[in-house]
Amino acid sequence: MISFPNCKINLGLHILGKREDGFHNLETVFYPVALKDALELLPATNSTTAIEFTATGLAVDGNTDDNLCVKAYHLLKKDFPQLPAIKIHLHKAIPMGAGLGGGSADASCMLKLLNEKFHLNLSTDQLISYSLQLGSDCPFFIINKPCYATGRGEVLEEIKLDLTAYKIV
User: What is the pLDDT of residue 118?
Assistant: First the structure.
């Protein structure tokens, strides 16, 4: 299965203050943007490891175990031990560290791919709950529609906003 996780922009990001848990309360509008990574999920055959992870495109630095796609698999594996070994290939086109949410998009997309491919029958609310364990803006990518976001970014209210008449660069 191949999917194309898109990024997002924040419109009017307003930091309200630091929380006791170390996060910040914020107020913003998340808006999906068509800049995309490519994410492929395949069952692994004759694999001695649970996950084979490869990446192309922009360099994905760090330890593979810290990659949010890998973490998404392990998160579901705890509750669904029947998940087989998999191969993940990520072609990274969304710049990292730019606030576009590319890693969060990839992680949320991985949850959705695993749910679909292995018939886990998780509801949208359940996917949102899992995604929140991976990152504050991950729930947005489960919904993937314009949203007014509060809390640390996880409290979402869908809004009607269409910016297709504009170019976002």
Answer: 96
Length of the chain: 169
The whole-number pLDDT of residue 45 equals 82
Determine whether 169 is exposed, middle or buried from the number of CB atoms within 10 Å of its CB (0-12, 13-18, 19+): exposed
Residue 6 one-letter amino acid: N
Q: Is the dihedral of CA 104, 107, 108, 113 positive or negative?
A: positive
Task: Please indicate whether residue 8 is annotated as part of the active site.
Answer: yes
- Cβ neighbour number for residue 123 with a 10 Å cutoff: 9
Distance CA 146, CA 163 (A): 10
pLDDT digits (tens, 9 = 90+) for 103-137: 999 999 999 999 999 999 999 999 999 999 999 99
Question: HSE-up of 31 (CA within 13 Å, CB side)?
Answer: 15
Catalytic residue among 8, 37, 106, 112: 8
The whole-number average pLDDT for the span 74-79 is: 96
Pick the catalytic residue from 37, 106, 112, 137: 137
Q: Is 137 an active-site residue?
A: yes
